[in-house]
Structures are given as structure tokens and as C-alpha cells.
# Entry
Amino acid sequence: MRTVALIRFFLGKGGVGKTTTAAAYSINKALQGKQVLVVSLDPAHNLGDVFEEELGDDPVKIMDNLVAIEVDYDKMIRKHLKDLTEKIKDIYGYLKIFNLDRYVDVLKHSPGIEEQASLEKIIEIIRKYGVGDKAFDIIVFDTPPTGLTLRIMALPTISLIWIERLIKLRLAILERRKTISSITGEQFEVEITGKRLKVPISVKEDPIFKELTKLRDEYNWINQHLTDPHTTAAIMVINPETLPVLEAYRAVEFLKRINVPVTHLIVNKIFELKTIPDQLRPKLEEQEKALALAREKLPGLEVIMIPYLEKEPRGPDMLKKVAEYLSTIP
Ligand SMILES: Nc1ncnc2c1ncn2[C@@H]1O[C@H](COP(=O)(O)OP(=O)(O)OP(=O)(O)O)[C@@H](O)[C@H]1O
Ligand SMILES: [Mg+2]
# Structure
């Protein structure tokens, strides 16, 4: 029995076919008998439209072996802020003089809150559905367009740099307090707006130190998952056009730097025409150029070509057509 799910991220520029290929891949694996969970992390969901099913925050069965989730972004951010507020109140509860509610209200609009909440959701999903004896075999993430996704994936690496520094700083503060306390022979106290407050002097009793180390462990855990080539694969989706290729190139370079394994390149919506109308000749020349650019800029990835289908691939039957192209992705 597998105890760690394989994780698959479908990434790419807006509109290239991330949701379609993530859905089709999930069907392919479910048909092979794998237990699959597919999760849409895109605030502008369309996974439900692609499956032709009403989806939400709880898993909905699509077919045998396959369930899907559309993450509720509003709920996720509300929960993130609520958890954060409680944490702040727990830790800084003694600072009743400050208006914490107003501080939290400001947090709601602070940069990075969406990325932070998304990462926490990914951690929650992997913890809940990706490890242990009830784990799915595969968890597929359909992602928002590239920029936001990359910021989410880089967050553990970037946060860990900060957290390590904050831990060192906190240790230094506690050390100083301890020294002063041993000289005076009294519990260390500070004066805030005229009130004298007792504050922790050891790592054991310091809630901030505890919170920092908990966060460090959590981010190390998710980073190990996201960078483990046995578990995780990012799959780039592009169209045979210059801009998606260039964006994919930059994304792959970035993912390399944060050690997230990128394995496949799906070139979706390729025009394959038996006879070529004159009006489409420039378009097809552009396609050839983009394919050459993709070969040059994105070497080393396994390439999968999917033609432009005669109909939008929606619903299980059309998705099965797309799924056939994706069987080589493990
Ligand atoms: N191979 C294909 N042939 C024809 N139409 C396709 C193909 N792949 C995807 N489409 C269509 O292209 C549109 C965009 O696809 P999709 O929604 O999967 O892209 P996306 O990358 O998830 O977009 P977004 O960035 O908005 O989430 C949809 O209308 C979809 O049905
Ligand atoms: Mg999509």
C-alpha cells in the first residue's frame, strides 16, 4: 500500500489547456486503476466546467477511482486569517493595549496573503489526502496561471531563509533576557505603556520560538515533498505560440532554481491540417517557429503533442480522447 501520493502540477500561461490536460491525465490514471484526486487551485475555477460537474471544497466523485475538488478561495483566505488572528492573540495576548483586530484587518490586504493561504491549502490537502494508509495514489493540481503558481511554489524556500534568521534573532533575544535575569536574580520584565509584564526567557516557555520552529518544520516538510523527484513532477503546458514558450522557459528556469522537478512539456492545440487554406499559412509558419523555439529553449523535457481538436474537450468522452495522449506521464 502506497503511503505517499504522487504529486502532479499542471502549469502554464493562461488559457493554454492546464485544466483540460490535468482533467484528462486524471481520467487516464483513474482508468488504469489508480486512486486519483484532482484539485483546482485556480481562483477562477473551470475544472467543474471541464468535467461537466458541480464541484466544491469537498471531494466530488467524477468516475470510479477519481474525485475532484475546487478550492473555495474566499473560505480559504478567511480560514487563513482566522488561524493567524488566533495565533497572534495567543502569542501576544498580553498586549491587550494594542488593537489586534485592526492589525488583522490590515493583514487581509497585505501582499502575499493569497500565496500564503494557497500554500497552506496545498499542505492541508497533501497531509489529508497524500500521506498515510488512506492516501490517494496521485494528487493532481490544476494551477492558476504561471506567475501566481511560481510564487506559491517558491514560498517555502523563501520563507525558510527568513524563518532561520528569525529563529537566530529570537535565540539571541532570549539569551540576553536570561543573562539579565541571572544578574538581577528576578524574572525578566518589560514595561509597556506603564504596565510591567513578565516575558519568557527560555526556548521552552517562549511561544514565539515554538511557533517559528513549527513553521520551519512545516515548510521543510512541504519543501521536501515539492522537490522530491520520486514524488513530485511539474508538467508544463504550452501552445505552439511564441509567448507561451517564452513564459514556460522562464518558469522552468525558476523551478530549477528552487529544485522543483519539471518532467514533461505538453504542446497543446497543435494545428494538424490535411489541406492548408491560404489564410492559415502564416499561422502554421508561426506554429513551426514556436515549436523550434520550444525545442531550443526547453530541452530535456519529455514532449507530448496534442492536436487542436474539432470540439472543446469537455465531459468524460472528449476528455478520454485527450487522455490517450497523456498515458506516458507516470
Ligand atoms: N486540444 C484542444 N483542442 C481544442 N480545444 C482545446 C484543447 N485544449 C483545450 N482546449 C480549449 O481551450 C480553452 C482553454 O483550456 P483550459 O481551460 O483547459 O486552459 P487553462 O490553461 O486551464 O486556462 P486558465 O488559465 O484560464 O485556467 C478551453 O475552451 C478548452 O476547452
Ligand atoms: Mg484552468
